[in-house]
Write a structure and sequence with these properties.
With 145 residues, the protein is α/β, with parallel strands linked by helices. 50% of the residues lie in helices and 21% in strands.
């Protein structure tokens, strides 16, 4: 099943998509997200364009697992998106994904404007890949029971 990953941000929202076999998440791009009313139709269109059968929105929890204002905003946004698409919308813990994305970009020596343009898509890819890996592990656990 193709799944769309979303790293919701204040200025930019990163997007990622996985293959139908749910093996590999790949960056899809970045869209401006200053205004959720403009962002929602863009994501609805991306779901349709990609043939996504589910959406995973990153949930920015604090390091201790608690949820602050950003997490509440992500929950609210995911609920609004779920009301506009005909596919399930799930939330996934995104702690440290932006730090990990910066680490990957350091490893590839991606700097300056190019880095700013891709970091959110890389973070969305990490969120989606973590979700896919956990989903695969859950399914493998059920199969061995």
């Amino acid at each position: 099943m193709k799944i769309l990953g979303v790293d919701l941000g204040h200025a930019r929202t990163g997007l990622a998509i996985c293959d139908a076999g749910e093996v590999l998440a790949s960056p899809l791009g970045v869209v401006p997200s200053y205004n959720w009313e403009k962002l929602l139709p863009v994501l609805v269109q991306k779901v349709q364009e990609t043939g996504a059968e589910a959406v995973v929105v990153g949930l920015p929890r604090n390091m201790d697992g608690s949820e602050g204002e950003s997490a509440l905003n992500a929950r609210d946004f995911a609920a609004k998106l779920a009301g506009q698409v005909a596919v399930p919308v799930d939330l996934w813990d995104e702690r440290c994904t932006t730090m990990t994305a910066h680490g990957y970009l350091n490893d590839t020596n991606t700097r300056g404007k190019k880095r700013k343009a891709v970091v959110d898509a890389v973070a969305a890819t990490i969120i989606l890949q973590d979700y896919l890996d956990a989903r695969k592990a859950r399914l493998a656990g059920r199969a061995s029971s």
